[in-house]
Amino acid sequence: MTASEGVLDSPTSWVASHIHRYLETDGADGHEWRPGVFTLLLTTRGRHSGKLRRTALIYGRDGENYLVVASQGGAPQHPAWYLNLLAEPQVDVQVGAERFTARARTATAEEKPRMWATMAKIWPAYDEYQTKTDREIPVVVLERV
Question: Mind telling me which InterPro entries this protein's record contains (predicted)?
Answer without folding.
Answer: F420H2_quin_Rdtase, Split_barrel_FMN-bd
